[in-house]
């Protein structure tokens, strides 16, 4: 959420940011409401001062035995007028808050302008595309042929966009989770947490999923609870409403959770395989940092997410998202896109974002600078470290062999009990 005073004092900056994002918000109308709110506050303060003054006068008249009925009636009417104006003020403040909560973050100055993901800017690549002496198959064929993935039975159990893992595939998914958590905790300094997978409205609001994106969420019927779309939500809200000591920054957390998304608006996209599921696993990285270092911290976060793909020997590229492709709460985002030879394309496997103080303001997360009485908002960052199902997809497509077998990346073999190859059934 943006600072109200900043919006009022910098309407042109806000309008330009909305124009870059192709988002329509009536900022002039919003400012008119803000001015009306100020005039209502001034009116109430003036009437209260008058009420206090005349109430004292009423007391003096009563002490002198003067008839005060007319004066008392006048003051009662004045009190009713104040109550009515206060109600108007509260109503307009609720509208101002609602509109303000739906204004997206301002893109960082170096975020490229663009109208779609085609305008995202590639900044680097790592590794080489694997070469095959045969036509590489998509992961759903590889997984099914080796008896590890079953989409038909998953559809019977739950419906479309679900997967059923068997045997080595289930074990490989679990191996990836443990491998990712071990790298981030043992080498990159993250504290592992296991958060709730169900959160309340305030937690969803704090990270920016609500109120704007409710259709993308799974809500529990009859409860004010939601299944999490990402561990970013519960982990960021660990410090909601708290003041962190400056010396504690940066705080770094990693968490494995299942994630649940309705995929609203994605009808017909990626209907086959594991790419766009209603339920999937992810290891998340969340950092609470000092505002002065947040963009340096974003670069560090990016390297932590990249390190997983590098350990697995998977070719990828990094792109900076353009203004139209940027998430609602983010000021800047790097997407890591892994190469999938079975589909002959790159696919996002991690998004690493700096939200600056946007989420912290919504969730009221501050820090106390040393030697200062004034508290400031922290900056929050998060990134996938990584999307587990998509990492499994990348392994299936990049490590498949012509004889139908699948090589297990060396980094995962200890987590697979020493298994080096998944052989097709004889």
Structure commentary:
The radius of gyration is 28 Å and the shape is elongated. The protein is built from 12 helices and 18 strands. The model has no long low-confidence stretch (mean pLDDT 95). Strand 14 and strand 15 (376-377) form a beta hairpin. Strands 1-11-12-13-16-10-9-4 form an 8-stranded mixed sheet. A 3-stranded antiparallel sheet has the order 5-7-6. The chain has helices spanning 4-9, 11-21, 27-63, 69-100, 139-145, 151-157, 167-186, 201-207, 232-236, 294-311, 358-363, 388-398; strands at 121-126, 149-150, 164-165, 191-193, 198-200, 218-219, 225-227, 243-245, 251-260, 279-289, 316-320, 332-340, 345-354, 366-368, 376-377, 379-387, 406-407, 421-422. With 426 residues, it is α+β, with helices and mostly antiparallel strands. The longest helix is centred in the N-terminal third of the chain and has 37 residues, at 27-63. 34% of the residues are buried. The protein folds into 2 domains: 4-100, Serine-tRNA synthetase, tRNA binding domain (Helix Hairpins), CATH 1.10.287.40; 117-422, BirA Bifunctional Protein, domain 2.
Radius of gyration: 28 Å
Question: If classified by CATH, what would the architecture of the largest domain be?
Answer: 2-Layer Sandwich
Percent of residues in β-strands? 15-25%
- How many domains make up the coordinates? 2
CATH superfamily of the largest domain: Bira Bifunctional Protein, Domain 2
**CATH fold field value of the largest domain:** BirA Bifunctional Protein, domain 2
Please state the overall shape, judged from the principal axes of the Cα atoms.
elongated
Provide mean pLDDT, rounded: 95
Task: Name the helix and strand elements from N-terminus to C-terminus, one letter apiece.
Answer: HHHHEHEHEHEEHEEHEEEHEEEHEEEHEE
Strand arrangement, largest sheet?
Answer: 1-11-12-13-16-10-9-4
> Using DSSP, what is the number of strands?
18
CATH uppermost class of the largest domain? Alpha Beta
Q: Specify the biggest β-sheet.
A: 8 strands, mixed
Separation of the first and last Cα atoms? 58 Å
Please bin the fraction of helical residues: 25-40%
Q: Assign the structural class, choosing from mainly alpha, mainly beta, alpha/beta, alpha+beta, or little secondary structure.
A: alpha+beta
Total count of helical runs of at least 4 residues: 12
Parts with pLDDT < 50 across at least 5 consecutive residues: none
């Amino acid at each position: 959420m943006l600072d109200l005073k900043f919006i009022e004092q910098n309407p042109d900056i806000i309008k330009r940011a909305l124009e870059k994002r192709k988002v329509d918000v009536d900022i002039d109308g919003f400012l008119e409401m803000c001015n009306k709110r100020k005039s209502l506050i001034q009116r109430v303060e003036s009437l209260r001062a008058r009420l206090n003054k005349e109430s004292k006068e009423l007391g003096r008249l009563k002490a002198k035995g003067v008839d005060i009925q007319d004066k008392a009636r006048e003051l009662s009417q004045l009190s009713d007028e104040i109550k009515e104006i206060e109600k108007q003020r509260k109503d307009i403040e609720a509208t101002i808050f609602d509109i303000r909560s739906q204004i997206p973050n301002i893109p960082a100055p170096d975020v490229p302008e663009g109208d779609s993901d085609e305008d995202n800017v590639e900044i680097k690549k790592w590794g080489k595309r694997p070469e095959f002496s045969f036509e590489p198959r998509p992961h759903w064929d590889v997984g099914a042929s080796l008896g590890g993935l079953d989409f038909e039975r998953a559809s019977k159990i739950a419906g479309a966009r679900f997967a059923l893992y068997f045997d080595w595939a289930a074990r490989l998914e679990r191996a990836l989770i443990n491998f990712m958590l071990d790298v981030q905790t043992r080498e990159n300094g993250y504290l592992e947490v296991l958060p709730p997978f169900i959160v309340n409205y305030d937690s969803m609001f704090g990270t920016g999923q609500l109120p704007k994106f409710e259709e993308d969420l799974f809500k529990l019927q009859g409860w004010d609870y939601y299944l999490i779309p990402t561990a970013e939500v519960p982990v960021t809200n660990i410090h909601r409403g708290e003041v962190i000591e400056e010396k504690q920054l940066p705080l770094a957390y990693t968490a494995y959770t299942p994630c649940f998304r309705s995929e609203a608006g994605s009808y017909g996209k990626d209907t086959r395989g594991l790419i766009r599921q209603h339920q999937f696993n992810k290891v998340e990285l969340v950092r609470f940092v000092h505002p002065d270092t947040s963009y340096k911290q974003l670069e560090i976060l990016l390297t932590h997410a990249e390190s997983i793909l590098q350990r697995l020997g998977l070719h990828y590229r990094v792109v900076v998202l353009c203004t139209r492709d940027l998430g609602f709460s983010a000021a800047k985002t790097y997407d890591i896109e892994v190469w999938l030879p079975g589909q002959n394309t790159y696919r996002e496997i991690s998004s690493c974002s700096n939200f600056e103080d946007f989420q912290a303001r919504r969730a009221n997360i501050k820090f106390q600078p040393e030697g200062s009485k004034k508290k400031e908002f922290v900056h929050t960052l998060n990134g996938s470290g990584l999307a587990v199902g998509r990492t499994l997809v990348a392994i299936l497509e990049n490590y498949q062999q012509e004889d139908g077998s699948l090589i297990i990346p060396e980094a995962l073999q200890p987590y697979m009990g020493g298994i080096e190859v998944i052989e097709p059934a004889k």
